[in-house]
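thread: overnight batch results

M.L. [08:02]
morning all. the overnight job finished for the chain we discussed friday. pasting input first so we're all looking at the same thing
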Amino acid sequence: MLRLFVGLALPEEVRLRLGGLSSGIPGAKWVKPDNLHLSLRFIGEVDGHVAEEINHALAAIRAPGFDLILNGIDTFGKKRQTRVLWAGVEPCEALERLQAKVETALQRASCEPEGRRFSPHITLARFKHPPSAGKLDGFLEHNGFFQADPIPVRGFVLYRSHLGRRGAHYEHLAEYRLDPTSGGLEETG
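M.L. [08:03]
and the structure it wrote out:
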């Protein structure tokens, strides 16, 4: 079985900059910089045959490239129920359209529909127990206005997640290029 998801890879300089924020909140399980990405759709565990169908469905997507802007840091969950710390993404119609095309392609490849509304973000840390309100508030006050230069998005990735004792490791299985000039797509891996 393969544990899969679809996402956008981030440039190394952005991953390192976000990774540089990974301190100051006791109990946070920080995402390793190499694993930072923007999820378009979690798929879950599938067998090799379904993975092949998914690959073909994703390769058929046609969409132009676009720029993505990271803006702000916040949490999911109210203060006493905080479970995730994330970097935000400015609203982007092209990203929304790409995610919708990914969702449609996955459903054509026999994947169940996603039950949650797409909320673009980059997970920075997870919490088993809600963090101290003072530490979290201090972190958000100091880092909440995080902003990065526009990130050119010229493709998306089918990832495989390997779970282990030291956390997850993500492997690129295939990359699908977006073509801003013709709206076409080429599979590169």
